Amino acid sequence: ENPDQKEKMEKLWKLMETYEPNDPESIQKSFARHLEYSLACTRFNFTMQDAYRAAGLVLRDRLLESLNDTNAYYRKMDVKRGYYLSAEYLIGRHMQNAIANLDLEQPFKEAFHALGMQLEDLFHEEVDPALGNGGLGRLAACFLDSMATLSLPCWGYGIRYSYGMFKQDIQNGRQVEMPDFWIGDGCPFEIPRPDITYPVRLYGEVQEGLNAQGEWCLNWVGGDIVQAMAYDNPIPGFDTYNTNNLRLWRACPTKEFDLDQYSAANFTDAVEARRKAEDLSAVLYPNDASYEGRELRLRQQYFFVSASLQDLLREFIKRPNYKWSELPEKVAVQMNDTHPTIAVAEFMRLLVDVMHVPWDEAWELTTKCLNYTNHTVMPEALEKWPVEMMTRMLPRHVQIIGELNLRWINGLVAKYGDGPIIAALSIFEEGDVKKIRMGNLAIMGSNKVNGVAALHTEIIKKETFPDFYKYCCDTGAPDKIVNMTNGVTPRRWVHCANPALSAIFTKYLGSHEWLTDMTKLKGMLKFKEDPKLHAEWMEMKKTAKKKLAGFLKETLDLEIDQDALIDIQIKRIHEYKRQFMNCLYVIHRYQQLKKMSPAEREKVQKRVVLIGGKAASAYVNAKLIIKLINNVGKVINNDPDTGKLLKLAFVPNYRVSAAEVLIPASDISEHISTAGTEASGTSNMKFVMNGGLIVGTMDGANIEIREECGEDTMFIFGCLEHEVAGIAAKAKEGHYPIDSRLQAVFQAIRNGEFSKGEPEAHAEFCSLVDKLCNTHGAGTWDGDRYLVVHDFPSFVDAQAKVDATYADKAKWCKLSIQAASSMAKFSTDRTISEYADVIWGVKPAPRPMEM
Ligand code: 7GP
Does some domain include residue 637? Predict the structure, then answer.
């Protein structure tokens, strides 16, 4: 109002409006400023870790400018927004990716080179933020990259765990879990937002009462209130001025609560309460594709869902003259698996109890805004919470779910009469312990439900949720269940992880457009037989193998022959993924080598087999498989007859940054799950984009990759999904022959060849083998649930074909180029465009350079 004051404010605004310049000299100045003034380092005393932090802050300044302007633009344009709710984000290191996406590679390189520093060395200082388990979490991170790159107004919401995925140490061949306090030294990329907090209630009770308008209502009162505090993580897009946000919530004690305790002079209780509140976001549960009904886990889920929904609804009602009926035109929410599906009830609660929207309208809005992705067919992963537990923790939500279910069941009975379909579709599962099925709640509350690969989506319809699919078809909505085949971002997984390959593509295609339009890679196909490209391609692989060799030397003190075929299987350890079968094959290969004369051995293709991945801490068999791999590796690698020709190593502490070194170096990778068990797989895509070929089953996205790249680029084996039931049925009757080569492998294990001097390990290894063999006799068939015995012979054949093909270098190179150049479909840019079109109805909103 005061003109003098206004003038001064305008001066400040002008100052704030200017962007940080991006020439090398300005970057250096900004770096020095952060080193000295943000980190309090002196000229004489700073470490590489300090340098990394200061460089991180240089980037953060630029990210913030872009983030703020992007948000302002979205508001100005009043766009529809997408919100991705995920309990996990396996984001990986920020720095290299941020530099690439902000288009600062050249000036950064120059700036730091001139200061005597290599960017690579700075990158190495960053700890991986590992706020996820595996595929589901990494997919969420690739999705964020594509949302920003496509200039889509989409944000991610999740939990800022203080302890991420545990660090895996290998001691005496066994997995030992170590805490990963990744946030210990602070992360220079995140922006704490003490100004953005929401209260989240847990426990307490529901009381009848009157609302502000004097109407009868139900009030949820009492219990504990924690504050969710926002931490923003800017996600820059590539080749756009948009930067989106990943908002992670940290649990903090409420201020009032603390004060009460303090005034009661009960200081230690107050501190204890603080600790209890903070526990909520302390640790990520290290389970992948399995479920543990732990109370803290449900608390975490509700905590982040409630804060996120409050935040996005606040954004909606900030709009002038908002109308609730417009909500589905402005908001689309994606629930990443069942973890955030309490959102269905929380959305209803916020609309009905807090915003006073009538029930029927609220339900219509909920089911128009929410969507659900299923990521696994493993029944043990479908969350079901005991009603008793949920009633204690979220009493109002259980009422809401009860009411929703009542209306739902009434409708179903009217349609089908009382019968088994009613029990199958109910949200409640009867039994000794009555449970709430989160999958059913998710489907009921969603506009669209999707699987993550074509085969997986069919399995969802046929096997995981057949009654829902029937209901959808019967009500004229078969399209409620759609397929969204997964992808990966080529920025991180090709450009950053494999700069040599990125340079080849850009050189041959004449521009880096392929990085945002992977169909451009088709242009490489005309060079697939070009000897000049072959030479460069092989050089690229050599560079990657050299880097891998350095990594293996450093982490395992393992020397590898860089001319060997590199064979990699990296993913969570799970019986359905069949790392065990891979290990059994390596033993077989070793036995073959041992039988040969030295002259015969000379002719055998050299191989290095690398297996890596974490096992859930309570998953006994997965942990045993790790031990077996380590023990087998020890025998093979130290055998003078074979050591040069075959190596087997377990790569410890598999994580995003390790994947970035391993994947570019592979010749083949193993995606060998039993048909019908791997929902999609995404590392298969990363490997092929880097010119590796797949040994795989007809499962998940393998099927679609093969379709795109050509049958000759994949070494397929094993039974098909529709054959599994028949094989299992025959096995139950005792028709389950064990291949003689596999018997020889079993024999070696039983003879203790891989457990010398370790009686405990010997018994454990025998138990693994016995389990596979325990397939005979009616009714007892449960041992080889994943058909290792059945698929082993064709696996051996596929591996022989790999060796034969690899011997022809020109052919191999051609296949490698052909495959890598045919992967457009598996860019998350394609996946996310489909989500935006088919599920969310969200449109790109690229902001102009200057605002
Ligand atoms: C994984 C699936 O196992 C994998 O096949 C898929 O590619 C990935 O999701 C992304 O869709 N599932 C999980 O990581 C997981 O934890 C249980 O599933 C909820």
Answer: yes
